[in-house]
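Quick illustration, no need to memorize.
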Amino acid sequence: MASVQLLGVSPCLYVNRVQIALHLKFIEYEFIQENPHDRSERLLKANPVQKRIPVLIHDGKAVCESLIIVEYINDAWNNSSSILPSNPHDRALARFWAAYIDDKELREASTAEARKEIIGRIYEGSVLLEETFVKYDGGKPFFGGDNVGYLDIALGSLDIALGSLMGWVKATEVISGVKFLDELKTPGLAGWAEKICSHNAFKEVLPETQMLVEIYKMLQGRGKPASG
């Protein structure tokens, strides 16, 4: 049995975050598929409080919640470049935007009107994030500088209700007809997204846009699986 196991389902944005972090740190792991609609005894034992994916199991010990897992991976395997910024302010800023992305209010959209409002809020957020990126990157290709970092991972797998700045945003653009990454209004983010899409850690994980469109339609019909 591998010393590192990941309980999840593919594709899942939250699971993708963990996979990207594992790939960035070159960590070998066993991926164990779970059924979010029929939780296994293994999942319930590993995450008895929230009963959801993803769960990372390292040397028999479970770690839950995608962004917490990403931080754990960064701390547990600290023999390579850090995923989190070393500067305390930059680290706090990355966590702030990650928390904004994971805001429960933004993630839940059960009606067309609610989704329209959320799309507007995300578009507004993307303009603010553009300003942050220009100040944050210092001419570097990623929020993490020369290398993909914490905020790149969080933004790179944004919630299905909103669309991510990679696979899910493309799917949501197809569904909603709204272009989130406008090369004129958000040129920095648009360029960043292209770089992220071509990065090996993301290419190995994120699924094709059309697959996500079909999954989105399916989930709207039966409710979204529990994950976080």
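The chain has two domains: 4-76, 88-222.
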